Description:
Chain A is an alpha+beta fold. Chain A is 48% helix and 13% strand. In chain A, 48% of the residues are buried. Mean pLDDT of chain A is 84; it is low at 378-393. The N and C termini of chain B lie close together (10 Å). The chains are: A alpha+beta, B alpha/beta. The interface between A and B is large, with 40 and 39 residues.
Amino acid sequence: xxxxxxxxxxxxxxxxxxxxxxxxxxxxxxxxxxxxxxxxxxxxxxxxxxxxxxxxxxxxxxxxxxxxxxxxxxxxxxxxxxxxxxxxxxxxxxxxxxxxxxxxxxxxxxxxxxxxxxxxxxxxxxxxxxxxxxxxxxxxxxxxxxxxxxxxxxxxxxxxxxxxxxxxxxxxxxxxxxxxxxxxxxxxxxxxxxxxxxxxxxxxxxxxxxxxxxxxxxxxxxxxxxxxxxxxxxxxxxxxxxxxxxxxxxxxxxxxxxxxxxxxxxxxxxxxxxxxxxxxxxxxxxxxxxxxxxxxxxxxxxxxxxxxxxxxxxxxxxxxxxxxxxxxxxxxxxxxxxxxxxxxxxxxxxxxxxxxxxxxxxxxxxxxxxxxxxxxxxxxxxxxxxxxxxxxxxxxxxxxxxxxxxxx
Amino acid sequence: xxxxxxxxxxxxxxxxxxxxxxxxxxxxxxxxxxxxxxxxxxxxxxxxxxxxxxxxxxxxxxxxxxxxxxxxxxxxxxxxxxxxxxxxxxxxxxxxxxxxxxxxxxxxxxxxxxxxxxxxxxxxxxxxxxxxxxxxxxxxxxxxxxxxxxx
Lengths: 408, 151
């Protein structure tokens, strides 16, 4: 009689895979149906944006930042603008601060509804995908009406925004928001009361509060685990300090926090409602005045070209905190620019979420943090025309070498 | 010779009924990708023309490629193209795949796409509207049909 020993096997997923909309490579170590180890390889979408940003002038770099990610096409250039404004001490007019909130919240609504559709698709619920995307088209129509574009909005300007919301635009915004409220209520019922979704998402991909804090999860992923963390409330920017809203955690609705995929659905759907409310508050309270600090672009460039200093811009993007650092040295372009996108912080929480789960749950768990690879992939080493992955040990060695060089 | 004609005729018929598309993201910003999904969803609904996204390049007639092709993705893009059966068409969606656009002079990009694959239809826009993408696909359809009737 031959004896068989139990061994594990590897499943590579990606970078090109129908379940993934973006290139990322997972390698799973599987024992039977259970995942016992996960490794993530990134860098397929590295486009050297930060490097290219130091070759452009201050207006061009806004459009480059807009193309870091097509879904967060507002919060990246806006964080960059916040950072540059802080470095150059530019005072943004009050009306522009309110307009910025309107656009930020519209982006959050579009992004969260999009995510709800993708999540439904990942568990094979395609009718919900089509339902959500139909709702999303209404939001995109409103965005197009306000900015002129559907996806990349081109609304950001250093010191303000580029387009005003006039009095005749307001009724249409209110009407769309009212329709949207009904649709979101319907989505709420379809996604949260459905027994299939409950069975697939409850107790699946659990991230405990401790892990969320330890691994620095951000945004809805952290809030679904019960961490009360939101840049809009912790360090108010734009006009968020004047508005009335609270942290969105799943216990608002269910009274308990499990940190599973179901809780992440709850948090995102509640945030859509919250965003609609915030836009309405903004429209009611918006003061009259200028929409940009310096309307003449040559004059703005002339001031920025003389600025020396550094600044940071933080914003609560739909996926979590986005962070931009800039350094200006009195030149015509940025001296240095660093972007930290929310997915970067949310990749490590993937590991405790995926361990011990079944292979079939990989897509929904991976999708549950709303990953955005094009935001994240800006860290690869390119030497002699070849990309090389650098692991922790190598990095440590490089770091020691650099310290030695510096001390010579 | 005669046999080949029969097969070609059969293919013309099949193209008139359904065109299957495989979508690959070669390092794009997601803007074009979500517009591609939007063109499949209820507002634009290209599935009513029999056009649908498929999960494997081996089932596809058309390759829809977005993004400026980063260095890590070059061989994957080439391999995907090679896996598609003939006759096939390539559509490049979005400005960055066509010209490099805002990412020009970047050190990690190998594109534009037409340096790597023979592109048949260029869809411009950053991102192009769903109408634009649907128009591009219908152009590719025409190309495949003329290809079939001439052989």
